[in-house]
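Re-run requested by the PI after the first attempt was lost when the workstation crashed. Everything re-entered from the original request form. Ligand of interest: guanosine-5'-diphosphate.
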Amino acid sequence: MRLSISQAALEEPGPDLARTSTRTNHRDVIVVIPAYNEEFGIALTITELENTLLSPNYLVIDGCSTDGTSQVASGMGVSVLTEEERGGKGNAMALALQHIPDSVNYIVFTDADYTYPAKYLPDMVKLLDEDPSVGMVDGNRFPEDQQTTESINTVFHLGNKCLALAHRIMNGVKLKDPFTGLRVVRWALLKEWKPVSKGFDIEAELNHYVQSKGYRTIEIPIEYRPRIGDKKLGVKHGLTIMKRIILLCFTNIEQE
Ligand SMILES: Nc1nc2c(ncn2[C@@H]2O[C@H](COP(=O)(O)OP(=O)(O)O)[C@@H](O)[C@H]2O)c(=O)[nH]1
Ligand SMILES: [Mg+2]
């Protein structure tokens, strides 16, 4: 697959605007943002990240958008990798892993649709800083003490719950929100990872991988905003995720 890298070197720091965290900077953090036709959400997403993290790296993986996604992101000074053709969210995340600078310790995965508030990230990074047994920190959109918000419609919520149950029973992954798009992962843990999932099933594979490597995953409760722009995930993707969960039953990562 041919790639074009536009704008800003990966190591080039963003503006120093963080408001929280006891860390002096997030230069060892890279924010990976898969984006397909998100020209309206991507600017808000990056602006909020810049106002929250201290000098992180950014890598937008543009799935060959037909709108101005790539131009908007490049115009904001972040690195953009453009796939030659749309390859799916999983493909985008796998591609990002091939372009992580040596200086990075933690990878933030988030969506380009402005659904995931960035304010949780400094604390999520800190949790990884403080405990080497933690491999991944996830944003849980469905905390028990929080009513289902308008941003999460019932079918979507029920679908997530059913898949989470299947993931728990069949793969032993006991997460409340295993398919969240907001997560921070220890890069050392992912260096050898060769994901096979091309689409939205990547999250099941990632959860399974982290657990199989003997690391803990922590979930923190988060609020979740209505997305900006058109949703890419549909009912058919639920079937792809279910298929991945079934396939993971037969995957012994230690033997790979
Ligand atoms: N690079 C790339 N990004 C994608 C592709 N499909 C979806 N995305 C992005 O992946 C993220 C998750 O998609 P979204 O529709 O928000 O799914 P949901 O949040 O799981 O409901 C968004 O930022 C999308 O723009 C793709 O084929 N390629
Ligand atoms: Mg989303």
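Saved to the shared folder this time. Residues 154-171 form the longest helix (18 residues).
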